[in-house]
Specification:
Keywords: Signal. Pfam families: DsrE (PF02635). With about 180 residues, this protein is α/β, with parallel strands linked by helices. It contains 6 helices and 7 strands, in the order αβββαβααβαβαβ. The radius of gyration is 19 Å and the shape is globular.
């Protein structure tokens, strides 16, 4: 019995200390999408390529207090940036719909519904500053009775639908990440 507890203690101690060895950084999107980096790892992005990616954001899961899928976009921007890919070669689009739709609300509209500030606003601003295009599905916004002109964050573009936005960008050879 004592051996079992001792083994469990040693194992958990090793796991805790192993987690602390990584150096986490956020080189482009400060505070979000943390990464570790070693230029000697395999499949480092090529600096002379264009990266055309569209994210389909549909869930309300959170990571570190913000939408987890927006957080992962920040991670991709950070990974490409630290790998030396120029901003002009990074083309990232996000289309937001479904349960994720409330992340696009401005602070006033968000507070009316959730009685607190929208925790995603700073991340959305940072993503826009990095050149990420953000769209919300008008169908999803309408289903939730969000007013396009009063409720939606000014950094977000309202598109006809997530469906048509996904098709549009995939026809332009953007790679879909869900």
């Amino acid at each position: 019995m004592i051996k079992k507890y001792l083994f469990s203690f040693i194992f958990l101690t090793c796991v805790i200390f192993a987690q602390d060895t990584a150096k986490w950084i956020t080189p482009e999107i400060s505070g979000y999408g943390k990464i570790t980096y070693d230029p000697n790892l395999a499949l480092i992005p090529k600096t002379d390529k264009d990266y055309k990616v569209i994210f389909k954001i549909t869930n309300a899961n959170e990571k570190e207090g913000v939408n987890s899928q927006l957080w992962h976009i920040a991670r991709l921007v950070n990974l490409l940036s630290i790998s030396g890919v120029k901003k002009k070669n990074i083309h990232i689009v996000a289309v937001i719909s479904g349960d994720a739709t409330p992340v696009v609300l401005n602070d006033i509209a968000y507070k009316k519904i959730y009685k607190k500030s929208n925790p995603n606003i700073h991340l959305i601003n940072s993503l826009k500053d990095a050149g990420v295009e953000l769209y919300v599905c008008s169908q999803a916004a309408s289903e939730r009775h969000f007013d396009f002109h009063q409720d939606i964050n000014e950094k977000i573009t309202v598109s006809l639908s997530a469906l048509t936005t996904l098709i549009y960008f995939q026809q332009l050879e953007y790679i879909l990440i869900q």
